[in-house]
Amino acid sequence: MSDEAIAVEDLYYTYPDGTPALRGATFAVPRGARAALVGPNGAGKSTLILHLNGILRGQGRVKILGETLTTENLRAVRRKVGLVFQNPDDQLFALRVLDDVAYGPLNQDLPPEEAERRAREALEAVGMAHAADKAPHHLSFGERRRVCIAGLLAMQPEILVLDEPTANLDPRGRRELINMLKTLGVTLLVASHDLEFVLDLCDLGFLMDEGRIIAGGPPRELLSNAQLLSAHGLEQPLSLRLRRSPEPPG
């Protein structure tokens, strides 16, 4: 069994209009890690994560849990990789939260009773059990994102990939999301501009720019390199800058 949950090797992708998005991206995420992709707008982060369950298919190799992604195993791989889009409204469609979360298990041909059991357990895991009978559009943005995560957890993926998970969240919703993600027993990969979030949640980080992985390592070490970040359109997180400020004279 491979120790790598995700392995991307020399991945290239060009959009139909001729815009190159990935230019030989290569990186690996160990099983059980909480990893982050950081980089400026247009770095290729969203394009890259769409390759991890075959929504996009470029040139190069994508391996999930040791298995190279192919047309033949695409359906099986998608059961292992859950992808949470930036806007939860792109994923929610049912009139009731419980029905939305149970849809995936039902689509896996599970009996209705088992699908509902999984859905209720997933809602409990993300702190949304109280909303099972509510309409998704009556929930806050952060609550809808939690429901999206529950919908994927109900399908029991081994890898969860999130695109800008803290976007449009208030401080309380952001903290609740971080605390919840820390409790999940799956490999996590997040694409995020929120570098404080990355410091708080992740144990591995990758800097991406112009379709390539530029550097990787522990987030505190990676994000402490002000010169590297500046060269790729990022600023150090405020918490790291404050730690390096000289003490005021006493």
Overall CATH architecture: 3-Layer(aba) Sandwich
Radius of gyration computed on alpha carbons? 19 Å
Major beta-sheet overview: 6 strands, mixed
- Fraction of residues in H or I helices: 25-40%
Shape: globular
The residue-averaged pLDDT reads 91
Strand content: 15-25%
Low-confidence stretches: none
How many domains make up the 3D coordinates?
1
Helix-strand makeup class: alpha/beta
What is the fourth-level CATH superfamily?
Answer: P-loop containing nucleotide triphosphate hydrolases
What strand order characterises the main sheet?
6-7-8-3-9-10
Query: Treating each run of at least 4 consecutive H or I residues as one helix, how many helices?
Result: 10
CATH names the topology as: Rossmann fold
Count the strands? 10
The H/E string reads: EEEHEEHEHHHEHEHEEHHH
Question: What is the quaternary state of this protein?
Answer: single chain
Regarding CATH, which class?
A: Alpha Beta
Query: Gap between N and C termini, in Å?
Result: 58 Å
Descriptive overview:
This protein has 250 residues and is of the alpha/beta class. It has one domain: P-loop containing nucleotide triphosphate hydrolases (Rossmann fold, 3-Layer(aba) Sandwich), CATH 3.40.50.300. Helix content is 34%, strand content 24%. It is built from ten helices and ten strands. It has helices spanning 45-49, 74-80, 97-107, 112-125, 141-153, 171-183, 195-201, 219-222, 226-231, 238-243; strands spanning 4-14, 20-30, 34-38, 59-64, 67-68, 81-84, 159-163, 187-191, 204-209, 212-217. A six-stranded mixed sheet has the order 6-7-8-3-9-10. A four-stranded antiparallel sheet has the order 2-1-4-5, with no helix packed on it. Strand 9 (204-209) and strand 10 form a beta hairpin. Helix 3 (97-107) packs across helix 4, helix 3 runs parallel beside helix 5 (141-153) and helix 4 (112-125) packs across helix 5. The protein is globular and about 55 Å long.
